[in-house]
Design brief:
- The chain has one domain: Rhomboid-like fold (Up-down Bundle), CATH 1.20.1540.10.
- It contains seven helices and no strands.
- The longest helix has 35 residues.
- The N and C termini lie far apart (42 Å).
- The relative contact order is 0.14.
Length: 197
């Protein structure tokens, strides 16, 4: 009974964390629209410009309007929830890798004169993490989450290729690679089996 209660409490805490994260994104976007007239978006990543370095940390919190944020909200909640099922440590690590490593990648390879905002780099980091963890760990839980993520959001993988103008494929690609690196660096290793002679 106690273990089940702890699991339920942990689940509600994780849902609360995701709701707080998504709520903060929406509050910031509403604030930006109503108070600053979208001026905060200028704090996004501007490739290879010193002024754009701050965007590495700001870009995931900023969106180009309500429609942009709405398109990111559900995958952020779902894929972020899948990563949380693996543990809060993994969630915060993958979020950090997606933000910092993914952002540095965008700053380095992004199209000149472009401005990159949005949480999609972190979303792709979650997807890259889940898929890579499934391949590396091969446990029932990691493979199950990888298959579920692929079933629900496998179509996102096309987003790492240059496509529609105004879509940051660079953030998608760099976020995916950052998530894959996070899976490798935070890999859960199964204890080695002792050999019997």
């Amino acid at each position: 009974m106690g273990r089940r209660t702890n699991r339920l409490q942990g689940l509600w805490r994780d849902i609360g964390l995701l709701c707080t994260l998504v709520g903060a994104l929406w509050a910031l976007e509403i604030f930006d629209q109503l108070v600053f007239g979208e001026a905060l978006d200028r704090l996004g990543i501007i490739p290879r410009q010193r002024a754009g370095l701050l965007g590495i940390f700001c870009a995931p919190w900023l969106h180009a309007g309500y429609r942009h944020l709405a398109s990111n909200t559900v995958p952020l909640f779902v894929l972020g929830g899948f990563v949380l099922l693996r543990g809060r440590r993994q969630f915060f690590a993958v979020s950090l890798y997606g933000t910092v490593l993914g952002g540095i990648g965008v700053w380095l390879i992004g199209r000149g004169g472009s401005l990159h905002v949005g949480a999609s780099g972190v979303i792709f980091a979650y997807l890259g993490y889940l898929l890579t963890a499934g391949v590396l760990e091969r446990s029932a839980a990691s493979v199950g989450l990888a298959l579920l993520a692929a079933f629900l959001y496998g179509g996102l993988l096309w987003g790492v290729l240059p496509a529609a103008p105004g879509v940051s494929w660079e953030a998608h690609l760099c976020g995916m690679l950052a998530g894959a690196l996070a899976a490798r660096w935070t890999r859960t290793r199964r204890p080695a089996r002792s050999r019997q002679s």
